[in-house]
């Protein structure tokens, strides 16, 4: 039987693979595996080229513009590491999903209840997915508008449309990697919640049950707990470098944005008073 959770997360996993985030799951078809590898290898080849193009296109003319140049470097390195990490940790990813599958198989009598939880999780992740897409493109739109607004006063390259497309694609990869990590965390949280609910249910039943039934259920509880901890362990192994670099990249972007707002207000006090900032 196919793994239930993967069935409900089919759309999410497919979109992440398109971006080069090569997530491996049990029962993947040969076509899906080939597609995931092609997308990841293509991303590994394209990201350095586009990163170099963007980096050279925004070479700083003054010292203060070096922040932008350095941020481009950090962003594309982060996106490259994300794709490389997901491609090189396929064995760890399989172990994570296999332990989730083993947990599923231990809930034979409660499988319908577990399926309801999966449906809720899938809808919840879909909302997060579209919010991140809207947030990402919304920020890009605002940035482009601000760039066009001040293009006569600020050093802006002429081919800004192509550059922003490359830049936005790298940003989307980093944000979708965050979403894939959130997906794993929410999956583990959901299983922990379901495990605790089942313990409360068993607490009411076992006091009126035979010794053999009690032993059977206690063994199942032990296995579920062990598999859950193993899943947590392997999920952490799959998100080491990418999440560290994502945190560094996000912190640097925030610092740069605050610095840019400060310097722009200093350069254009008239426009700041008019309400642009």
TrEMBL record:
Listed Pfam families: 7tm_7
Keywords in alphabetical order: Cell membrane, Membrane, Transmembrane, Transmembrane helix
Compartments, as annotated in UniProt: Cell membrane
Protein's membrane topology: Multi-pass membrane protein
Listed InterPro entries: 7TM_chemorcpt
Primary localization: membrane
Biological process according to GO: sensory perception of taste
Parts of the chain that traverse the membrane: 34-55, 67-88, 129-150, 156-173
GO cellular component term, pick one: plasma membrane
Protein name: Gustatory receptor
Record organism: Lutzomyia longipalpis
């Amino acid at each position: 039987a196919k793994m239930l959770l993967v069935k409900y997360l089919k759309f999410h996993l497919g979109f992440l693979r398109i971006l080069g985030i090569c997530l491996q799951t049990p029962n993947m078809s040969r076509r899906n595996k080939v597609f995931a590898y092609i997308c990841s290898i293509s991303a590994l080849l394209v990201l350095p080229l586009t990163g170099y193009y963007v980096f050279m296109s925004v070479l700083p003319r003054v010292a203060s513009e070096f922040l932008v140049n350095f941020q481009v470097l950090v962003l594309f390195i982060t996106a490259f590491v994300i794709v490389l990490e997901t491609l090189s940790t396929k064995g760890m990813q399989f172990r994570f999903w296999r332990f989730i599958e083993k947990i599923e198989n231990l809930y034979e009598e409660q499988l319908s209840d577990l399926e309801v939880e999966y449906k809720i999780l899938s809808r919840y992740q879909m909302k997060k997915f579209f919010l991140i897409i809207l947030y990402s493109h919304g920020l890009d739109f605002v940035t482009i508008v601000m760039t066009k607004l001040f293009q006569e006063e600020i050093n802006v390259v002429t081919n800004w449309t192509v550059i922003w497309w490359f830049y936005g694609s790298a940003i989307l990869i980093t944000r979708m990697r965050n979403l894939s990590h959130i997906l794993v965390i929410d999956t583990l949280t959901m299983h922990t919640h379901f495990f605790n609910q089942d313990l409360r249910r068993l607490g009411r039943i076992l006091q009126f049950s035979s010794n053999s039934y009690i032993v059977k259920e206690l063994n199942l509880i032990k296995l579920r707990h062990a598999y859950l901890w193993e899943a947590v362990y392997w999920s952490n192994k799959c998100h080491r470098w990418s999440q560290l670099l994502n945190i560094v990249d996000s912190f640097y972007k925030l610092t740069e944005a605050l610095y840019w707002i400060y310097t722009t207000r200093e350069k254009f006090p008239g426009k700041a008073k008019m309400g642009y900032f």
